[in-house]
Amino acid sequence: MPSLNSNIGEVGRGFAAFLAPPPEGTVRFSVGQPNFRTPDVIVDCAKAALDEGQHGYTRSQGSEKICSAVATHLEKYDISTDANDVVITPGCKQALLYAMMSCLNPGDEVLLLAPAWPSYDGMLKLIGAVPIHVPVSRDNYHPRMDLLEAAVTPKTKAILINSPNNPTGAVYFPEEIAAITALAVEYDMWIFDDMIYSDLVYSNHTYVSPATFPGGIERTLTIGGWSKIWAMTGWRLGWITGPSAVMEAVKTCQASSASHVPTFLMDAGVVALGLAEEPKKFLEDFSERRDIFHALLEEIPGINAPKPEGAFYILADITETGMDDIEFATKALEIANVQVIPGSLMPGGEGLIRMSYGTDLEQIYEGCKRLKTWLQG
Ligand SMILES: Cc1ncc(COP(=O)(O)O)c(C=O)c1O
Predict the structure, then answer these.
(1) Domain end residue (candidates: 258, 273, 288)
(2) Which of 89, 119, 316, 318 could join 238 via S-S bond, C-beta 3.0 to 4.6 A?
(3) In a domain, 46, yes or no
(4) Which atom of ligand 1 is nearest to the CA of 162?
(5) Does residue 227 have its Cβ closer than 6 Å to ligand 1?
(6) Ligand 1 centre from 281 Cα, in Å?
(7) Number of domains forming the structure of the chain
(8) Are 247 and 288 contained in the same domain?
(9) DSSP helix/strand/coil, 354
């Protein structure tokens, strides 16, 4: 048999091993998706587009309407961009890959704040770039600028940030984003800003874009999508924008691969961006879940977690239980019937477990009760 791409062996499958459908009756704190239905008005728009016959190929970067809607949406975060510099992609994931393909060469190093969502590591390795995992503070999961600066080498080409963060739930302070931007300016790095959870914030400080700080706009690629805020994970709709020269490269990546996202989903994406009530209701629900979940975990011996500031994840330290995170996750499933993600699937996540509150309150109460009974016993 001919040989495979030599990068493939290095690439992991993220959380896949611990996301396998568990036996019936298991409480799943593992899945990173909201349990809400996509709002009907969005679904109806996609159905109408199919009925109207929007079945053919279309503009590769996305319709002018959806690109303009994204540019307008980003104004809310003081990100100023031109609709012509927006590309609509098959999910935020593909947008991240295009950013990496457009800006990096094999051997280039990219700083990740560890523990980082594992797909970043996989994508970088796929294209022959080198992920450098720089630990965040264990107290609050915020960046450690001293460690970030120490990790810079002549090969460092980019830094990837994600705030609100998966898996930590941290929302970085404006001064931290300013410091990261300044570091990127000093060492001439790209900034890949994965802002997919931008509106899911429960703390007093909000998502802030690096593009709003000096030197940021010309090196930031803003990458987001519809999956989390509008409960549209299966629709595979994302966006990317940045300086025109990079966006031309991104357009080449899309034209040479996916061509475009499904034609009949584009108007529905525009409808979603115009909604106010539904995302607000989702946010309120998440906020309530976060408060209750965190309070319940505080009552469980051996589990310690800072209160998440955003997204819908709690990253808990379980070292006091005497187990490592793989043993914890394995036994949690076998004994307590609760599925969680062990942190050591991500470099820098050893001794931690990630729990998602994409699930409903009833499951949160039940799962915590089971964990408490198991750990007290
Ligand atoms: C940090 C982060 N970025 C991107 C994605 C993927 O988004 P999409 O479904 O739009 O590809 C996820 C999904 O879990 C995520 O957690």
Answers:
(1) 273
(2) 89
(3) no
(4) 1
(5) yes
(6) 21
(7) 2
(8) no
(9) strand
